[in-house]
Each structure stands twice: as C-alpha cells, then as structure tokens.
Amino acid sequence: MRRDYTERGALLEAELAADWRTQFAAWFDEAVELGLPEPNAMIVSTATPEGRPSARTVLLKEYDERGFVFFTNYESRKGSELTANPYASLVFPWFPIQRQVLVTGVAERVSRAETEAYFASRPRGSQLGAWASPQSSVLPDRAAVEAGLAAAQERFGDGPIPAPGHWGGFLVVPETVEFWQGRSSRLHDRLRFVRTGNGSWAVERLAP
Questions:
Q1: pLDDT of 4
Q2: Is 5 helix (H, G, I), strand (E, B) or coil?
Q3: List of E strands, the chain
Q4: Residue 1: what pLDDT?
Q5: Helix 142-156 crosses helix 124-132 at what angle (to 10 degrees)?
Q6: What mean pLDDT do residues 178-184 have?
Q7: Which of 52, 112, 155, 186 is catalytic?
Q8: CB 177 within 8 A of CB 103
Q9: Which residue among 77, 132, 180, 182 is least crowded, i.e. fewest CB within 10 A of its CB?
Q10: Angstrom distance (rounded) from CA 198 to CA 202
C-alpha cells in the first residue's frame, strides 16, 4: 500500500510566501479549486492535563492573521479538554494533492459576538442540533437524540434560535505552521513557520 509522491513537485524556500497566512490561503484555495472533498476538514488534537490525547475531525470556519477558528459545544470532550489544557494541534490532510498543513498553538474562546454572528448563519437544523445534543455525553440509544431534537423544536417553534451559552468558537493561535509537500522516496519537503520570542516569524526546514 505504498505510493510514491511525484506529481506535485517541490516546496522550496524561494517559493514560500512571506507569511504563513498567505501560504495557507494559496494552498487552501488550490484544494478548493481542485475539488477536494471538504477541504476545510481538519483533525483537531487535544489532551487532558495528564497528557492523554484525543483527536477528531472538525470543520475550519475561518482563518485570518489571528489563527484558525472552529465552533463546538464547550462541554464536549474537546471543549472540556481545551478549557483545562489549551494546547492544540491541527492537521489538514490534503492527501489527493500530496500535501498537509500542521499547526500547533494555544486555543482561546472567540468573543461572544463572533459566536453569535456565526451561529446566526448556520442552517436551522444545525442551530437546533446545538441545543438538542449534549455532545460527547453517553446516551442510552438513538431515541435520546431524537427526543432532544423534538424538545428543541418545541422550545423554539418557528421563532429565532439563539446561540446556546455552552456553545461557541475556539481560535487556535498558531505557534508553528508547517507546510508538508510529498516528494519521491519519502524525501518530503517540510517548511515550518515558527513564532519567535519577539512575535516575528522564522522559517525552518525539517528533515523528512
């Protein structure tokens, strides 16, 4: 089950953008243009204060010079772990184009205004789901999910649905952003932006 990566070329320092956001935007736009399924899907890894890791796939909803934003139930496993231990990593696994982007950083909650603005843009079914599901909790059966949805529908009827207090966004403020380009013979190109002590960024090449 081995595949040699030869189609996409190289990632050289001379071709790298001046900052991580510009480089990420170029790669992200290319992933979208080439029709990758859910190019904004990313693996979010968290850990307990004792160092026990967990990972799951979520959808990136925004990125800018601050970092990467996703939304979740703050009482879910990832939400609880990030509240107790804010260090996180992200992986964008763009396998069809032989690329990955790997991020490490610190997660912080976005403002309530940002959460409410995003929540208002969600489909109504997703809004109801945020109220209906105690995410990551143990349930007796599927009927409990349906009951939660029915209760949310009864509660809000045809009226507006506000963002739950236990639901909102996390901003992962990056400390490193690595751009990984597959190359032949597993001699991949790995260029990493690293935040320095004075807030500027340095670029380093990692061994494949």
A1: 83
A2: coil
A3: 41-47, 53-59, 62-64, 67-73, 87-94, 99-109, 167-181, 189-195, 201-205
A4: 76
A5: 120
A6: 96
A7: 186
A8: yes
A9: 77
A10: 11
Examine the pLDDT at 6 and tell me if it is beyond 90: no
Strand partners, 173: 106
Tell me which amino acid residue 117 is. A
Residue of 156, 26, 154 lying closest to 97 (CA atoms)? 26
Phi, psi of 90 (to 5 degrees): -125, 145
- Report the relative pairing of strands 189-195 and 41-47 from DSSP bridges: unpaired
Nearest to 176 by CA among 191, 190, 194: 194
Q: Which two structure tokens, joined as six digits, stand for 64?
A: 């800018």
Angle formed at CA 56 by CA 55 and CA 57, multiple of 5 degrees: 140
Q: What is the CA radius of gyration of the chain?
A: 19
pLDDT at 195 over 80: yes
Active site residue 186: yes
Q: Which residues pair with 190 in a beta bridge?
A: 180
∠ CA 79-46-129, nearest 5°, is: 35
- pLDDT tens for 38-61 read 999 999 999 999 999 999 999 999
Does the structure show a pLDDT above 90 at 9? no
The model's pLDDT over 104-141, given as tens digits with 9 standing for 90+, comes to 999 999 999 999 999 999 999 999 999 999 999 999 99
**Cα(182)–Cα(190) distance, integer angstroms:** 9
- Chain position carrying tokens 């139930």: 73
